[in-house]
Amino acid sequence: MGSVGPLQIVLVIVVALLLFGGRGRISSIMGDMAKGVKSFRKGLADDDEPKAVDKEDLVDVTPKKDESKVSS
Predict the structure, then answer these.
(1) Are 4 and 10 in contact (CB under 8 A)?
(2) What is the CB-side half-sphere exposure of residue 4 using CA atoms within 13 A?
(3) What pLDDT is stored for residue 54 in this prediction?
(4) What pTM did the predictor assign?
(5) What is the DSSP string of 2-66?
(6) Over the stretch 2-57, which tens digit does the pLDDT of each residue have?
(7) Which of these, 45, 25, 44, lies nearest to 33 by C-alpha position?
(8) DSSP state of 68
């Protein structure tokens, strides 16, 4: 039960390479995650300020009355 075979050693090496190999993947992942959090917070802060709306930007979505259904 306590013996370690070659398959287990290879598995441990592969996992170690995935976690720590390749120019600091963990640190780059954490850096990207921090950038995402900063962008999210900046986006939330920008939404608090009301934006000015021009008359040209408004769209009339009121449905028009159908004159054929109106009875007098």
Answers:
(1) no
(2) 5
(3) 80
(4) 0.36
(5) ----HHHHHHHHHHHHHHH-TTTHHHHHHHHHHHHHHHHHHHHHHHTSPPP--GGG----PPPP-
(6) 788 999 999 998 887 777 776 667 778 788 889 999 998 888 876 656 677 788 87
(7) 25
(8) T
